[in-house]
UniProtKB/TrEMBL annotation, chains A, B:
Gene3D superfamilies, sorted: Tetracycline Repressor, domain 2 (1.10.357.10)
HTH tetR-type domain: residues covered: 1-61
Protein name, per record: Transcriptional regulator
Keyword Hydrolase found: no
The keyword Transport belongs to this UniProt entry's keyword annotation: no
A Pfam family the protein falls into: TetR
Protein source organism: Alteromonas marina
């Protein structure tokens, strides 16, 4: 991995764990065991790090949110897709922690973040609409609009809330978010009891290991 | 209203609107048109303001969360109670914005905030359990535990999320939070279609004006 990539990855990890505001460029250099001068050679300050991370985040979200054929997915594939959405936001979760404060400090992230959120909402709306057309989801148009807001709230804020409440590790947080989604979606799904149980079992067993063919959102390849 | 109360109310309003970290003691004094010296006479810095506000918040939450007889409430009364919970957290919402950052800055608020959240969760758990015993709510014990987490997430974080997404006024934010709760709870309620419609109509018409007998959470009487 090249130095610039290592720097970005380390910055991202530290920002996610401690919040962007408590991490300095020097902290990042120390963590990487490089000189602040070397870091500065690659990125001229936190501003340029934050912007480079937003660019990565945008590109990866675009891949996930441009996925088509959502309207032929099976319920368990949909649950997996929801998990991917949680995962891909979670990897860049510091952008959604103290959202207003971050926007004030880095005005340049406001527009791409807004764009990501509105694409996320559109994709969720499309997913629910197609499920509803296929008579799998029982929800009026107004209900579906609220469900989109709720999913989006869970995806972007539940990890922050988990930090407030308890100390879950990062994987547990993602499954917790997915469980919160499913507890509100499941009663609206017109599935057999057997199918619902199957989904619940998948959820309980945390049965969503990335298979080798799915690239990690942090793949720099 | 006494000066100390005016100061608290103004600090609360500014903290809620702009976040605690961007508001200084001098801002509060200017807003009130008093001298910083006068403010200092009443509160020795932001630390003491934040602690006094937390004391108010605790007392008011205790009143609402110690309410008994939840197990005889009608569905519309339950919805109203959920609204009261949203409202009472919303009045002190800056405590739940950037929760980790605030905790680092004011370690003394961690314990009372934790206590409020665990009381809130207990009360919600009790509410759902009693509804389930009365066969009004269809939810397993595991489902109910997730529903408690979800309600708590909505109550504490949805206003923050709304700020990220759009510019709703404060009343709209509260009804939006209640709508998010109801969209996940309603499909689990064993009510007639007529009863469900009635709840939805109440929700749509924002029909929860405080009646004169309910004291405002900001009542200093």
């Amino acid at each position: 991995m090249k130095t610039a990539q290592k720097i970005l990855l380390t910055a991202l990890t530290l920002f996610n764990e401690h919040g962007e505001n408590t991490v300095t460029s020097v902290d990042i250099a120390i963590e990487l065991d490089i000189s602040p001068g070397n870091l500065y050679y690659h990125f001229k300050g936190k501003d340029s790090l934050v912007n480079a991370l937003m660019k990565m985040h945008e590109q990866q979200m675009q891949k996930i949110l441009s996925r088509e054929k959502l309207d032929t997915l099976h319920p368990e594939e949909i649950m997996y897709y929801l998990y991917l959405l949680i995962d891909s936001i979670h990897v860049f979760r510091f952008f959604y922690r103290s959202p207003a404060d971050l926007a004030e400090k880095y005005p340049s992230i406001v527009r791409p973040r807004q764009h990501i959120l509105s694409s996320l909402n559109k994709q969720l709306a499309y997913l629910f609409e197609s499920l509803s057309k296929r008579d799998i989801l029982i929800a009026s148009k107004a209900d579906r609009a609220l469900m989109v807001d709720l999913m989006s709230l869970i995806i972007t804020q539940s990890c922050q809330f988990d930090e407030l409440n308890s100390h879950m590790d990062s994987t547990t947080q993602r499954y917790h978010a997915l469980s919160l989604m499913m507890v509100s979606v499941l009663p609206r799904l017109a599935l057999s009891d057997e199918q619902k149980q199957q989904l619940e079992q998948m959820l309980d067993s945390h049965d969503f290991m990335r298979d080798a063919s799915t690239p990690s959102p942090l793949d720099f390849a």
